Amino acid sequence: MTDLDQDPVFVVIEDFDPYQETVALERMAIYDDLRAQGDFIRSTWSQGFWIVTGFELQREALQNPRLFSNTATTPADPDPSFMWIPEMLDPPEHTRWRQLLGPMFTPQRMALLEPTVQRRCVELVESIASRGECDFFQDFAREYPTTIFMGLMGLPISGPGFSWSGRTPSSTSPPRTIRTARR
């Protein structure tokens, strides 16, 4: 039995901003409050978006591309001008990309990468330690997984035509249109 077998509760909240600055653990209390208010929360912030609060409802939505699409990664930009592949693809395109990329992420391949991953971690921690302080998100959490992934894909993490912009790397070169092949 899922939560949808019961009468769901829909609530509209004025201007709930999921990116509002909070102190440690305050965000969890905010989401606990949202869960207590209803099953489906509609915020009017930005262009408007839905929050599904229950685990079973979330799983049901995430497994149904008619209800939930990966094409947008943030409620502030529901129709982005870029596409991160395969993250922003829905089935069946996402499935084809996972099949292509899956062999690169086997336990054996990951074990071979462990020294490189550890070395990158040490590089970042040492650069932070030499400064004596850091913004953990900006200086480590944003950069570490992104640079590891870029290395896996054979992409540069610095150099001409590259800069960090906001939370993701971006090109300083003119944009190119990339289209996915459709069968």
In words, what does this structure look like?
The protein folds into two domains: 3-68, no CATH class; 106-171, no CATH class. The chain has six helices and five strands. It has helices spanning 26-37, 55-62, 93-101, 107-131, 136-141, 143-152, and strands spanning 10-13, 40-43, 49-52, 162-165, 168-171. Strands 1-2-3 form a three-stranded mixed sheet. A two-stranded antiparallel ribbon has the order 4-5. The longest helix has 25 residues, at 107-131. Residues 169-183 have low confidence and may be disordered.
Provide a short characterization of the protein structure.
The protein has helices spanning 26-37, 55-62, 93-101, 107-131, 136-141, 143-152, and strands at 10-13, 40-43, 49-52, 162-165, 168-171.
Distinctive features:
183 residues, alpha+beta, 2 domains, 3-stranded mixed sheet, two-stranded antiparallel ribbon, 38% helix, globular, disordered C terminus
